Amino acid sequence: MQLDLSVPAELMIALLPEIVLTVGILFLVLWSAWRPASAAHQRQVGILSLAVSVITLGVVIWCAVRSNSAGPGPLAVDGFRWATDVILLIGAICTIAMSLDYQEREGITAPEGHVLVLLSLVGMMLIAGARDLVVAFLGIEIMSVAVYVLTGLNRRSPRSAEGSLKYFLLGAFSTAFLLYGITLVYGATGTTEFAGIAAQTGRSAVLASPLFRLGMGLLVVGFGFKVAAVPFHMWAPDAYEGAPTPITGFMAASVKAAAFAGFLRLFIEGFPAALAEWHLALWWLAAVTMVAGNVIALAQRNMKRMLAYSSIAHAGYILIAVAIGAKTGVDVGVTGSSAFVVYLFAYTLSTMGAFAVVTVLAGPGEPYLDMRDYSGLWTVRPGITLAMSVFMFALLGFPVFGGIGFFAKWYMLQAALRGGAEPQVLLAFTLVFTSVLSAGYYLYVVTLMFVAARNEEIPVPDHPRRFTGGVIVAMAILILFFGFAPSQVLRTANRSMLYPTQVVPVAEPTVEPVAAATRQSMPRR
Amino acid sequence: MREFLFSVGYDRWILPTLLFLPAIGALLTWFHGIYEYRAGHVGRSYEGFARWLPFSIFIVEFVLSLGLWWAYDPSGAVFQLTSTWDWIPDWGVHMSLGIDGISLFLVMMVTFLLPIAVLSGWTSIDRAVHSYHALFLVLTTGMLGVFMARDLIMFYFFWELVLVPMYLIIGVWGGPRRLYAATKFFLYTFLGSLFMLVAILYIGFMVGDAMYAAGLTPTDRPNFLFENAMAYFTPSGTEAFWLFLAFFAAFAVKVPLIPFHTWLPDAHVEAPTEGSVDLAAILLKMGTYGFIRITLPLFPGVVLHSWVGKVVIVLGVVGIIYTALIALVQEDWKKLVAYSSVSHMGFAILGIFTVTTVGLQGAMMVQLAHGLSSAALFLMIGMLYERRHTRMLSDFGGLARVMPLYAGFLMIATLSSIGVPGTFGFVGEFLTLMGGFGPVPMLTVVATTGVILSAGYMLWSVQRIIFNPLDKAENKRLPDVNWREAGMLIPICAMIIWIGIYPAPLLRRMEPSLSRLVEQVHGVPTSAAVSRVREAR
Q1: Contact B201 A393 (CB under 8 A)
Q2: B381, B180, B410: which is closest to B277 by C-alpha?
Q3: Would you state the pLDDT for residue B304?
Q4: Phi and psi at residue B126, in whole multiples of 5°?
Q5: Best CA proximity match to B530, nearest among B307, B358, B280
Q6: Beta strands at A69-70 and B80-88: parallel, antiparallel or unpaired
Q7: Measuring CA to CA, which residue among B375, B342, B233, B290 is closest to residue B103?
Q8: Which chain B residue has the Cα nearest residue A451?
Q9: Tens digit of each residue's pLDDT (9 = 90 or more) over B22-38
Q10: How distant is the Cα of B160 from the closest Cα of chain A, in angstroms?
Q11: Which one-letter DSSP state was computed for residue A255?
């Protein structure tokens, strides 16, 4: 069904998941403030939040099955949006489940943590569906403000406060970049809708205008901050380290995923004609992020910092999907956007699983975050060790044991070689080479867990609590299952690719008679 | 026999069964381990299942694989007993299995050696027995898969499947420097194989494009089947060279060729006995198998190029001499045998890159012979280590007096390793050198000195272990091989002698596939190719 977004009823259908989620959030906000904060209340709100997100997941899947499409307007109704929504919801469900146990263990009775996760989820889902710079900006801000608060959720921890403040300041900074970029692009094109921008870029005067180029550059910087691409990554390790561990997982997986979804859609639907202008910048951004993220991660000994830098490295891999540009032509088998969907799916599963394990092993008060504290874990907690090995191998992109993680990396390789305007052999090579580097730290964790001797001074970690254990088991099983039967994921990703807006070159209005005369005398191409 | 086997559908189910039976066994073993762990059952009395189930699975595998001897049609040159299922149809990845004269004996060697190898850890492995054996079962699936795969992606998958179990086996049950050895092993192999992955993708796309252009497929999808790659893969000179290098990176590390061999002594020395046996007898062959299966037919232009093929042969020959010299001065017996492995694999490389039927037959025989003799040697090193907890040659001497049976087995394995006529080792080295004299006479002469050097280091080490005076008090009371150990060594030594005397059945089954391969590489029938090479000289 083709939805006409100017009709309110049909706009409601297009926004159905967000509306359902928002209604749930409003109810939960009231509910969480209604009773005095207590551990039981926190747990109740958490379970209700889980229910709301599961319902939203159902609505998203219903929307995806209906497979509506939308006419021109600020919202996209397409497979890409639903696929991204599902991935974001998986991330949010895992986060809430982990925080439930985490808050209980740490004695944080604030029930609003769960609601804030849902609130940022609304923002993320808006970004995934935004076809308008203003809507995208709105989504980014809803998401970011909620996550700033979440980072500082543990009010008793000075590191949490430090991370939160750093994140807030640099987030505000990057917002300024984004907003300035949006302004300049609007100034150059006269519109904030992606389709309108793309149509305007058919005029060579717009493409060549410094206003437009500077605007694009600022947008790259702004999104670069949000996805933590090198050199705009400095906030990430501190914020990740300071935040409560489940929230760190949320930031590393979902926040990044949402920002990337907006990034990708803007550059494929908004700036396809300007590929020549932005391609090189993003190419370097991807290459530098892959190399620097992996190299710095090699030196980390704190699990949270290591995973933070590894998420920076993964931002580099995902940036390949953006940097290669949209594929043009009849045969679209592999594209950056479908590789992006598979990669995000695998990355979210393995990151969430890894952070769940880190949460469990850190212990009450989180004193055991050093990698060496994991030494000999296999002798005392074999189940967690096996699950963690699966997550590490999945992040590494190793076949068989890494399950879907391998196919994600493979798809990205295919996209680099085949999916873009032209084959990016050097990016593919960088991906492969840095993957070997990343074995240095992922494998180190596995090695410590299996091979090294257990430090007897460290108490045996508790068994994971119910929800966290559920997340660990579910993620490991999903990773392995889709590793053996990836066809369905790949097909879904293929159906949810983004199509670049067709840009028709616009004849320039005649400004100067001399120029017009010159042009007429030239043969038409 | 053949009729009976085909009447029970042997040709259809044998390869998948051989391949997946160990994987299923691994899961069963692991589940049992989890059950015992949860029930709090710790100790030897609860480990019977974990020892007997893998052993029975390996025995079943061996018995089942015996049928291959009859079911395989000796005159056929192409893949036989094939089976194919779709796995990821969207990407053109199929689960395609099949064996030909090249892989037949490697598969049979795997199934032959594994029940023997698993016995070696029967008493010495005493912690996490379930996981240990489960990992070996997974490893078996990987090793068999590499030799059975008919699809480049499957090949890559099984290639990597081998890596993690071996890494954990070395890392968890290995010697004192196991952490270093395991990590080095993993990183070396992983680096090489990722380059192979990129090359495989590239080839798959090219083949898919070519098939689409030829109107054979409705959509432009990558295709990874070996046969299609042989038929539709037509790279330009430069492309072929870079792709060759990518595969070379993976295979050269695995073989290992000098200068990529440094992981091997560490891994061998630190691995438990069973790990060393699998590593030396089977894992190294994956590299040479890759050269024969993929590099030769896909990049004939590069292999026959005036200097590229020569460079590889030179690396192989330098490896023969250099590692033989290193082996001469080793004090650690296990390290000595490890270096001798590199030396022997150099002969296989020499045979492969001469690209003659005789040379390739020699290379195959060297691989099999080295598989058996190195397995026997590593098993015997393990037995002695269990008795004395040392591997230093200077700690032994005169063992023939207290362990006469042991000394007898050791002599057979040593003579085969040296390549004395009448043993398996001789067949391989003789054919390799014969194949080499035509195309590269000077290098072959140099390689021949490697045989002399191997006689030097092997005989010297044997002398220091079993012959010199029995002057150490600890050595005077060593018990001879027990029934379990004899049961491990008798089959291997019997095979070494039997094939050494009568290798014709093996050679006959290899010949059609290998001569077809040589024809593919040269692009003309074999005899003409050989004469053309001679004329060119």
Answers
A1: no
A2: B381
A3: 84
A4: -130, 5
A5: B358
A6: unpaired
A7: B290
A8: B172
A9: 999 999 988 888 888 88
A10: 7
A11: I
| Nearest CB to A452 within list B89, B179, B221 | B179
Q: How far apart are CA A114 and CA A93, in angstroms?
A: 10
User: Least CB-CB distance to B171: which of A439, A450, A491?
Assistant: A450
Q: Write the pLDDT tens digit of every residue in A3-18.
A: 888 888 888 888 999 9
Closest CA to B68 of B134, B150, B2, B124: B2
Nearest-CA distance B387 → chain A (Å): 25
Name chain A contacts of B171, Cβ cutoff 8 Å.
Answer: 447, 450-451
Neighbours of A71 (CB within 10 A): 12
> How are beta strands B80-88 and B93-99 bridged, if at all?
antiparallel
Vertex A242: Cα angle to A239 and A246 (nearest 5): 95
pLDDT in tens, B65-78: 988 888 888 888 88
Asked if the Cβ–Cβ distance from A487 to B88 is below 8 Å, we say yes
B460 touches chain A (CB under 8 A): no
Query: For residue B285, what are its two tokens?
Result: 């062959």
Tokens of B53: 């189930």
Residues of B in contact with A341 (CB under 8 A): none
Q: How crowded is residue A385: how many other Cβ atoms within 10 Å of its Cβ?
A: 20
Interchain contact A477–B (C-beta under 8 A):
no
Q: Mean pLDDT across the stretch A340-351? A: 94
Which chain B residues are Cβ-neighbours of A487 within 8 angstroms? 87-90
Question: Which of A247, A25, A70, A59 has its CA nearest to residue A153?
Answer: A247
Quote the tokens at residue B268.
């061998």
What ipTM goes with this model?
A: 0.86
What is the band of A146 on the pLDDT scale with cuts at 50, 70, 90? very high
Answer whether A413 sits within 8 Å of B198, measured CB to CB: yes
Instruction: Return the structure tokens found at A267.
Output: 């550059």
Task: Tell me which residues of chain A, numbers 412 to 451, contact chain B at a CB-CB cutoff of 8 Å.
Answer: 413-414, 417-418, 428-429, 432, 435-436, 439-440, 443-444, 447, 450-451
Q: Is B182 at the interface with chain A, CB within 8 A?
A: yes
Alpha-carbon gap, residue B52 to B41, rounded angstroms = 17
Name which of B464, B462, B455, B275 is nearest B379 in CA terms: B275
Asked whether A223 and A185 are in contact (CB, 8 A), the reply is: no
CB pairs under 8 A between A and B: 73
Residue A521 has a pLDDT of 47
Rounded CA-CA distance A411/B501 in Å is 52
Which of A419-433, B357-371, B458-472 ranks highest by mean pLDDT? B357-371
Instruction: Give Dmax (Cα) for chain B.
Output: 78
- The helix or strand, by DSSP H or E, that contains position A184, with its residue range, turns out to be helix A158-189
Structure tokens given for B197 = 């992955």
What are the pLDDT digits (tens) for B314-344? Answer: 999 999 999 999 998 988 889 999 999 888 8
